[in-house]
């Protein structure tokens, strides 16, 4: 069995909020559990379930699967809205529930050095950081998480044309996670800026010297510091970060299965046009995740002026740190360069949604807005298949691996400096980014 390493920092205790039961996730039911679930007379005790199929077949993934049905509100059919409890759990016990229900909010990432066990920040209890640490629960957690297949290569992709050793990847992961610890007061943008500088330094180092270099605490600190202020409006930002932001918001624009084999040419064209609407920051679109009409024109006409609340900054810091500890930047389908950029895009998605909620309420963004934004991004963007390679595959991959493009993405939703204080050299640099 693969060695499993548990993130020691997060805390978690289920508060039975029921939020995970009301998400529109597909909950796959294992074959061995179907008979017990379907054999129970649910209608006898729960009249609203009388005559209803509690399990249905689903072929969204291209293969037939059995999934839990949903009620009229989009929640799990077994969720009791009055008590906030799972009636399947109550009647048949914890072990009768599908594995995804039993394991959540714990997850496991297949990393080069073993299985990395983490928690999903889409869970409000994880966000609140209350309860025992994961280490204190490690025996139970290891019973819940399924081991992954072993890493099937002796190196890790750093870019399209370069790999680094597994040991270098481990050292890089430690360095990047340390950037997001809680020992200093630097903001999220500064931390990400240091992460970009670190991967740029790796890209400039020789393979035979890289492991020793990564052990040097000063490694990656001598790269040039670039301008790190926001744009005066999102429409004035370079096109590349706006396109990448729109592509990362794909599940907010379209259903998860929207790019299946049955989507015709005309439908694809209309989808690209909707994507371009987001890129241009004009008009309004109906957010599938926030359930509001996002006023792109208002969002796009000005820069982000309010700083990130301290409480929200700490929450997002813990979220990114957890993903780095889980080695989510070292995965098969993206290089380390590209995956580091994706972390910035996910951070931007949270910022964008929180700002959209603020515009909708005509009030400054609150911590509750950032929590809701993180919940939606964690549930429906980072936990779903990515659509980066669908629309413009070659351009997208090269952009994700570009440090300068990552820097532009980092600046996209950074609070803007006052217009009158922006110098001419800064304007020139913004236009060239």
Task: Describe the protein in words.
The protein has 433 residues and is mostly helical. The protein has 2 domains: 141 residues, no CATH class; 199 residues, no CATH class. Helix content is 45%, strand content 10%. Helix 8 packs antiparallel against helix 18. The longest helix has 26 residues. The protein is globular, with a radius of gyration of 23 Å.
Can you give keywords for this protein?
single chain, disordered C terminus, 11 strands, two-stranded antiparallel sheet, mainly alpha
Number of helical segments with 4 or more residues: 19
User: What distance separates the N and C termini?
Assistant: 47 Å
Low-confidence stretches: 420-433
User: Element order, helices and strands?
Assistant: EHHEEEEHHEEHHEEHHHHHHEEHHHHHHH
């Amino acid at each position: 069995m693969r060695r499993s390493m548990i993130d020691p920092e997060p805390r978690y205790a289920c508060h039975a909020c029921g939020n995970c039961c009301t998400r529109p996730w597909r909950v796959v039911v294992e074959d061995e559990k179907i008979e017990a679930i379907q054999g129970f007379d649910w209608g006898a005790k729960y009249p609203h379930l009388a005559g209803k199929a509690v399990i249905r077949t689903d072929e969204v993934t291209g293969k037939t699967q059995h999934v839990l049905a949903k009620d009229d509100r989009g929640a799990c059919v077994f969720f009791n809205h009055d008590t906030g409890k799972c009636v399947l759990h109550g009647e048949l016990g914890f072990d009768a529930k599908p594995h995804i229900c039993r394991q959540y909010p714990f997850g496991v990432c297949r990393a080069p050095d073993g299985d990395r066990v983490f928690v999903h920040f889409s869970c409000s209890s994880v966000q609140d950081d209350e309860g025992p640490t994961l280490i204190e629960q490690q025996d139970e957690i290891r019973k819940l998480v399924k081991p992954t297949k072993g890493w099937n290569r002796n190196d890790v992709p750093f870019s399209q044309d370069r790999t680094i050793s597994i040991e270098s990847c481990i050292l890089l992961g430690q360095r990047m996670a340390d950037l997001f610890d809680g020992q200093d007061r630097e903001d999220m943008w500064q931390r990400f800026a240091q992460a970009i500088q670190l991967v740029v330094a790796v890209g400039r180092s020789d393979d035979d010297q890289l492991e020793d270099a990564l052990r040097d605490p000063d490694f990656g600190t001598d790269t040039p510091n670039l301008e790190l202020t926001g744009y005066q409006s999102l429409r004035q930002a370079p096109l590349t970060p706006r396109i990448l932001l729109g592509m990362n918001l794909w599940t907010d624009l379209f259903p998860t299965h929207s790019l299946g084999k049955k989507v015709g040419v005309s439908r694809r064209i209309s989808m690209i046009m909707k994507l371009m609407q987001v890129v241009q920051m004009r008009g309004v679109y109906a957010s599938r995740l926030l359930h509001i009409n996002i006023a792109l024109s208002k969002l796009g006409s000005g820069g982000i002026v309010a700083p990130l609340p301290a409480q929200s900054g700490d929450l997002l810091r813990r979220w990114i740190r957890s993903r780095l500890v889980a080695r989510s930047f070292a995965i098969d389908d993206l290089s380390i360069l590209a995956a580091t950029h994706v972390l910035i895009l996910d951070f931007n998605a949270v910022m964008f949604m929180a700002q959209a909620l603020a515009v909708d309420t005509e009030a400054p963004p609150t911590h509750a807005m950032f929590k809701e934004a993180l919940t939606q991004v964690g549930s429906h963007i980072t936990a779903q298949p990515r659509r980066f390679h669908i629309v413009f595959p070659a351009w997208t991959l090269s952009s994700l691996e570009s440090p300068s493009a990552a820097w532009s993405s980092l600046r996209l939703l950074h609070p803007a400096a006052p217009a009158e204080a922006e110098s001419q050299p800064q304007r020139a640099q913004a236009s060239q980014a």
